[in-house]
Amino acid sequence: MHQSTMIFRQLFEKTSSTYTYLLADSDGHEGILIDPVIETLERDLKLLDELDINLKYILDTHVHADHITSSSLLKDKTGAQIVIGSATKVECADILLSDAEELSFGKLKIKAIATPGHTNGCTSYLCEGLLFSGDTLLIRGNGRTDFQEGSSETLFSSVREKLFTLPDSTLVFPGHNYEGLLMSTIGEEKEHNPRLGTKKTFEEFKSIMENLNLAEPKKIEIAVPANLKCGRN
Ligand SMILES: [Fe+2]
User: Fold this and answer.
1) What is the pTM of this model?
2) Distance in Å, CA 120 to ligand 1 centroid
3) Of the four listed, 24, 56, 111, 208, which is most buried by Cβ atoms within 10 Å?
4) Which CATH superfamily, name and number, covers 3-224?
């Protein structure tokens, strides 16, 4: 564990209730951002500057439908490389990560875990016992599976067979929360997640997902095409 040398910040974008995460090695000052949002570009650049962090990678957990990534603008300002899961086939990315591939920043490593289901290209990232689960596993919930190649069956296996096999103490940092919750753990979600907890069967999960009756995300027509171009218009 290099936790003593890790800089970690959880940041919030309020119009889409998105969490952005900053991780850096305090020794070499190399860092990464996960899921940065265009609305909060200036805030994030200021924080990188104040903490003296050289941004090495900008990672997105998936092609978002509810907000536009600031990855291209951050790349222009910092020279960092854009990273996303290989199954997204996003052409503007510098690095397409497949399952189990790792990236280093300073002495720290972050590993991709392919967790399709909310979208085909959804990727969770694991770094030093912290799991960044995007919209695959949310706190007491999960991302919807009714558009963008969503599949309740695939999401169920991603969570139960991949994320729930991590140690119970793994901290879970999701892509969103709408109730003010910041983090969870794998053990807590196995026990208390009302859809995906280990007592639920796939049939129960599927019927929950089929009966959510959710509205289309407001920004989907704008956000998805923009995110396929790394947020460049
Ligand atoms: Fe999403």
Assistant:
1) 0.96
2) 11
3) 24
4) Ribonuclease Z/Hydroxyacylglutathione hydrolase-like (3.60.15.10)
